[in-house]
Automatic annotation (TrEMBL), chains A, B:
Regulation: Non-allosteric.
Domain Phosphofructokinase intervals: 8-322
Alphabetized GO MF terms: 6-phosphofructokinase activity; diphosphate-fructose-6-phosphate 1-phosphotransferase activity; metal ion binding
Cofactor: Mg(2+)
Known role: Catalyzes the phosphorylation of D-fructose 6-phosphate, the first committing step of glycolysis. Uses inorganic phosphate (PPi) as phosphoryl donor instead of ATP like common ATP-dependent phosphofructokinases (ATP-PFKs), which renders the reaction reversible, and can thus function both in glycolysis and gluconeogenesis. Consistently, PPi-PFK can replace the enzymes of both the forward (ATP-PFK) and reverse (fructose-bisphosphatase (FBPase)) reactions.
GO biological process, any: fructose 6-phosphate metabolic process
Protein name (Swiss-Prot/TrEMBL): Pyrophosphate--fructose 6-phosphate 1-phosphotransferase
Binding site for substrate: 139-141, 187-189, 244, 295-298
Broadest EC class assigned to this enzyme: transferase
Pathway: Carbohydrate degradation; glycolysis; D-glyceraldehyde 3-phosphate and glycerone phosphate from D-glucose: step 3/4
NCBIfam families: PRK14072.1
Length: 418, 418
C-alpha cells in the first residue's frame, strides 16, 4: 500500500465534543505520520473537492479542538441516496478521493453518515480501489444502535440535567407569588434520551422535574394537566420537561399545532414548549414560564461531561487505528463493561448493523406513570454525565475556543457539474 | 441598644448569586454574634410572620449558599404601595419586627425592594422604634442607579456571552446546508444590559453576534431584515440577539404581537425571539432556529462570574456592617475605581437616590448602526464577566447545591387578617 492520505469529515448536527473526536483523529494520524485532509461541510466537501490540509494547523490548535464546540470543518445536513439513485455523486466522491490519494475515509456522524460510509466502501471495493471506510459515532440524540451511547449525548445530557436543576431552584423560589409551572423543551424528535437525562436533576417524589413527556409515550392532555394540577397543589410548583417530538395517540406531532401559519399566513415558529405553556395557562390559569434552549444544549462545551469527552476522543483514536489496519465498513462502538464503577471499552462494529437504524429508549427506562425515569434508566445515564472538563478561559471571561486556519488544498479536478 | 436580631429577606427575580449574598450576610452576622432570621418569600414572610431561624443551619450549609442558585429563603413579586395606601400592611410588618426583637432589616432586591426598605425605615423612625433598614442590591437586569453594577448581572452576562459564542460556532458549522439565521432572546424588559453582554461573544466586523436589538433602539423591521440579508450574503450566516423588551417606534412592545390570543382564543405564549425568527423565515425565506433561555440565564450558577460572586458577597458583608453601625436607609453600592486593571470598592448610598429609579444603557454604549456595542460598553462589561467560580460537583455529575433546613420560628402573633 502506498503512503496515502486520510480524509475526515463531519456530518449532521454538531455537538459539544465532535471537535474533540476530530482532534483525536488528527493526533492519532500524526503519530503514525499519516497526512489528514478534512472535507469542508461533510460529504459536500468531497463532492466539491473543497478540502482542508490539516497539516497546516499547529499542534496547539489541534489540541484546542478538544475544548471547542461546533464543527471546526463545517458539517452538513445532506444525505446521499442509494448507489443507483446518486450514482454520479458517489462516482464523483470516489474520483476526488482517488485524485488526492485518499486511502482511508472517516465519516463522523449519525446513522445517515454510517450509511454513506458503508456505501462508499462498497463502491470502492467494486471498482477495485483500495479504500477503507470507517464511521465515527456522534449525536446528541443518542439514537445509534449497537454502541452503548453516542459521543455528544453525555454532554448534552449533563447540560440538560444541570439546567433543569438550576431552573427548578429558581421556580421554587418564585412560586409563592409568581411562576408556578415551568416548561423546558429538549431536543429529541424520535427518542426521549435527552428528556430522560433531565430526570437526573432530582430524586424523590417531589423533586423536579415533576413531569417528563417522552416521544415514546402518547401525549394525553387531560392526564398531563391533571398531573400538573396535583403537583402544584402538593409541591407548590411544577417543572415540566418535554421532548420536541411528543405525539398524539394517532401519531401526529403535538408541536405541529404550534408550527403552522396564523390567520394571515404568517409562520408560527413556536415549539411544543410554548404550546404546552399556553395550554397550562388557559386550562389551569397558572402562571407559567418556558424555555427552549435549542442549539445551546448541543454546543455547551463549557459544561461538557468528562466521560463524554473521553468517549469522543477514544472513538477518534480507534477509528484511525481501525482504518490503518484495514478494518473496512466498521464503526468504533462504545461497549459498557460495568455500571458501577463505570467501565467501558471501544470495539469495532459493522456499519451494516448501524446504518439507518434508530435506537429508542427501552420500555424499562420509563416508569409506570409514563412521566418519569426508572432506576435502571438512572443507572444507565449517570456515568455518561459524570465528571467535568471545562475549557480554559481567557482574561475576557470567555472560553478560549480555537478557530482553525482551514488552509485549502489546491483543486486537481474540474468542478462537479452534478 | 439591646441584643436584637437581624432580619434578612430576598425579593424579586432570583439570580445565580443572590444566595451568595445571603451566605455573606449570615456569616458576617455570626462573626458579630448577631442572630439572623430570614423571612420566607420576601416581605410576605414578614407580613405572615413566616420566619426562618438561620442559626439552625450548619456552617457548611451557609458556606454552600455561595455556590447555590435560586433563592434559598424564597422570593416574591409583591410590592407594598405607599405608606398611606398600605398603612395596615406596613404596621403589621413593624409589629412582627418588634415581636421578634428585630433591630436590623436587610432587604435584598431591586429598586422596588429599596423602596420598601426605605419606607419601613421611615415608619419605624416615626413610631420611635430603633430599626435600621439597609437595601442590598440584586438584579440580573443591572438597572439600579448609583451602583456601578448589580450583583447577579455579571453572571447572567457571562452566561449570555458564552452561550451566544457557543451557539454561533454551531450555526457557523451548519449554515452551508441548514440553519442560516439564529435568534437568541435575552431578558431585559426596559434596559438592554444583557443584550449588550451578548456583544462580548465576538469582536470584529463579521464576528457573532452580528445583530443586537436593544430596547433602547426602536425596532425597524425593514432595517433589521436588510441587515440579516447582507450578513448572510457576506458571512454565510447571521446570529441575532434580541432583548425581550424591544419596541416599535410608537412604544408598543414587539413581543405583544406574539403574546396574544389566536383565532380560537388560545394564548400564544411566543416571545419576541420566535416572532422575529418567523419574520426572517417568511420575508427572507432563510432557515432559522431560535432560543429563549428564560430562567436558565439567571439561575446558571455553574457558569457564574467570579467578579459577580465577589460583588454579591461584598454587598452582603457590607450591609451587615452598615446595619450594625446604624447607617439607616442606605444600600451598599459597587463603586468602580478603574477599568483596567479592574478595581472596585463598596460604599453606602442613600436608598432615596435608588428607590424607583431605573438605569438605562448610556447612549455611548450602542454603536452608530444601532445593532452593536461600542468599545466603551465592552470596557464597562468585560470586568463583570471575568473569572470563573464553578460549584463543586458530586459523583453523579451534578453540582452540589444545598437545600437548607428552613427551621420555622414559632409565631408570636395572631395571623394577619389584612
Amino acid at each position: 500500500m502506498g503512503k496515502g492520505t486520510l480524509l475526515y469529515a463531519q456530518s449532521g448536527g454538531v455537538t459539544a465534543v465532535i471537535n474533540a473526536t476530530a482532534g483525536a483523529v488528527i493526533q492519532a494520524a500524526r503519530a503514525r505520520k499519516v497526512k489528514v485532509l478534512a472535507a469542508r461541510n461533510g460529504i459536500l466537501g468531497a463532492l466539491r473537492e473543497d478540502l482542508v490540509d490539516t497539516s497546516k494547523e499547529s499542534a496547539a490548535a489541534i489540541r484546542a479542538l478538544a475544548h471547542t464546540p461546533g464543527g471546526a470543518f463545517g458539517s452538513c445536513r445532506y444525505k446521499l441516496k442509494s448507489l443507483e439513485q446518486d450514482a454520479a455523486k458517489y462516482a464523483r466522491v470516489l474520483e476526488v478521493i482517488k485524485a488526492h490519494d485518499v486511502r482511508w475515509f472517516l465519516y463522523n456522524g449519525g446513522n445517515d453518515s454510517a450509511d454513506t460510509a458503508l456505501k462508499l466502501s462498497q463502491l470502492a471495493a467494486a471498482s477495485g480501489y483500495p479504500l477503507t471506510c470507517v464511521g465515527v459515532p456522534k449525536t446528541v440524540d443518542n439514537d445509534l444502535v449497537v454502541t452503548d451511547c453516542c459521543p455528544g449525548f453525555g454532554s448534552a445530557a449533563k447540560y440538560t440535567a444541570v439546567s433543569v436543576a438550576e431552573a427548578a431552584l429558581d421556580v421554587e423560589a418564585m412560586a409563592d407569588t409568581s411562576t408556578k409551572v415551568f416548561v423546558y423543551e429538549v431536543m429529541g424528535r424520535h427518542a426521549g434520551w435527552l428528556a430522560a437525562a433531565a430526570g437526573l436533576a432530582g430524586q424523590g417524589k417531589d423533586a423536579a422535574p415533576h413531569i417528563i413527556l417522552f416521544p415514546e409515550v402518547a401525549y394525553d392532555e387531560a392526564a398531563f394537566l391533571a398531573k400538573v394540577k396535583t403537583t402544584v397543589a402538593r409541591v407548590g410548583h411544577c417543572v415540566v420537561v418535554v421532548s420536541e417530538g411528543i405525539r398524539h395517540a394517532d401519531g401526529r406531532f403535538v408541536a405541529d399545532a404550534g408550527g403552522g401559519k396564523d390567520a394571515f399566513g404568517h409562520s408560527q415558529l413556536g415549539g411544543v414548549g410554548p404550546l404546552l405553556a399556553a395550554t397550562v395557562k388557559d386550562k389551569l390559569g397558572l402562571k407559567v414560564h418556558w424555555t427552549v434552549p435549542d442549539y445551546l444544549q448541543r454546543s455547551a462545551r463549557h459544561l461538557a461531561s468528562k466521560t463524554d469527552l473521553a468517549h469522543a476522543q477514544a472513538v477518534g483514536k480507534a477509528a484511525v487505528e481501525y482504518a490503518l489496519k484495514g478494518l473496512n465498513g466498521v464503526m468504533p462502538a462504545i461497549v459498557r463493561l460495568a455500571d458501577k464503577p463505570y467501565r467501558w471499552k471501544v470495539a469495532p462494529a459493522p456499519l451494516s448493523d448501524i446504518a439507518n437504524h434508530e435506537k429508542k429508549m427501552p420500555k424499562g427506562f420509563i416508569d409506570a406513570s409514563g412521566f418519569g425515569i426508572t432506576p435502571a434508566c438512572r443507572r444507565y445515564l449517570e456515568p455518561l454525565v459524570r465528571g467535568e472538563a471545562p475549557p480554559p478561559y481567557g482574561p475576557d471571561g470567555l472560553p478560549k475556543y480555537v478557530r482553525l486556519k482551514l488552509s485549502a488544498v489546491p483543486k486537481k479536478l474540474p468542478a462537479f457539474a452534478g
